[in-house]
Amino acid sequence: MRFAIAGGGVAGLAAGLAVARAGHSAVVVERDDVTAQDGPEGAFDVVRKGIPHFQQPHTFLPRGRKVLRELAPDVIDTLLDAGAEEQDLAARLSGPRQPGDEDLVYLWVRRPMVEWALRRAANAEPGVRLVSGRQITCLVPGASGFHLDNGEEICADVVVDALGRYRCPPGWPRAQAEPSECGSIYYCRYFELAPRAEHLAGPWLLNPRGDLGYMGFNTFRGDNRTFAVIFIVPTADRELRVLKDNDAWMAAARACTPLDVMTSPDHARPITDVMPMGGLANIDRTEGSGIPGLVPVGDALCHTNPMFAYGLSFSLVHAQALGRASAAHTAPGDLTEAYFADVGPEARERYTFALEFDAARNAAWSGTPVDLSRRDGCYPLFAFAAALATAPHDDHVLRRTVGRVGLLDRVSVFDTDDDLHGRIERIWPQLTRTPAGPPRDELLRVISP
Ligand SMILES: Cc1cc2nc3c(=O)[nH]c(=O)nc-3n(C[C@H](O)[C@H](O)[C@H](O)COP(=O)(O)OP(=O)(O)OC[C@H]3O[C@@H](n4cnc5c(N)ncnc54)[C@H](O)[C@@H]3O)c2cc1C
User: Which of 45, 49, 159, 338 is the most buried (most CB within 10 A)?
Assistant: First the structure.
């Protein structure tokens, strides 16, 4: 079969690789002028107007790593050679390893590098043709291809919509969907560790994160001794938008624990300015457009609050499912149906969770009391924040929590485990919880010019 893939981000490139490795041919068309570079050095200089969040920190979840190992182990090798690092959370277990623990691994790498490695593999794949610097203008009726801005028509049996979350060409068919605002803005900055410094070790499961009661922060490792810090601020809190300023941002970091240590000159130096990112929404298009032979992957299918970091992993999951469907079906309509049946339920349950979590956290940050210490309190926060905080203290909680936040398990595995919930409820009161930063008025005083 011939696949015409619209969009050459992570989902489009992975879809191209997946169908080519299942024995088909694919043309991947990307609007930005990106070419496959030889080395990773150029990955960060690529101008990606089509992806405003290109330089934002990205966590590569255990599920994404697992799928990438199955789909394209060569890409994992390329990333590790280029300085990506694996973090094996099974090393935190106090008891012996069990089957499945080999997947409890995060892959720390900055997003431009992920795209670079995928593009390099797609470029070398005999069944894939990459076209860059060409805009797709419209779909050919019946999804038998699409037109480009130079008048060329790419003919295909199946069209893959990998156009991402932003605007697609006029008249491009997509399932109707109502966006739900996440209600937060990100203010992120990347750092490089000082020569003799190491990533901060501590009681946290992954990396330091904190909730100040009115905003929060998270930290992400990257490749090559880099890491990022993000302040997550409610969209409604206009005064805190001063965090877009480098000096204000650094003053806020100095006021929070352990960001004060992480961002001190002895520990690390900033390698970017503050990168603000708003306009974040959840969208579910898993109902499909109803057009046989038109298959959305990645953000075009569904996207959620980036806090959960599902996007890259789901892009790979969708690519893998497309490869599977293309191996099992020769009629585009059957392929489309099988694909939606495969990926829809899991995307929908994560979308539902994201909406519930956003509502709970936005309520908490606007002053509504929430109880995350009990399953019958605020369940979305219990199943995320309380689970992450208690996971380092109990092997069963660790496995189930990484299974849930790392996208390895369906949510029912966590949600129906009464023993697990009891363990979290028993551990939570024993944890020392000191505020991660000052009250809002005090923070504002510190960061205001
Ligand atoms: C702030 C932020 C933080 C995030 N953090 C994480 C994280 O920690 N972990 C994680 O896994 N995910 C994260 N995500 C989500 C992740 O970035 C997305 O899920 C991922 O980018 C989806 O890839 P995609 O290929 O579907 O879309 P995109 O990356 O948006 O790619 C779409 C491509 O289509 C091209 N295109 C668009 N229109 C046309 C056209 N007309 N013609 C030709 N080409 C076109 C664009 O130029 C672009 O290259 C984050 C997202 C945001 C916004």
Answer: 159
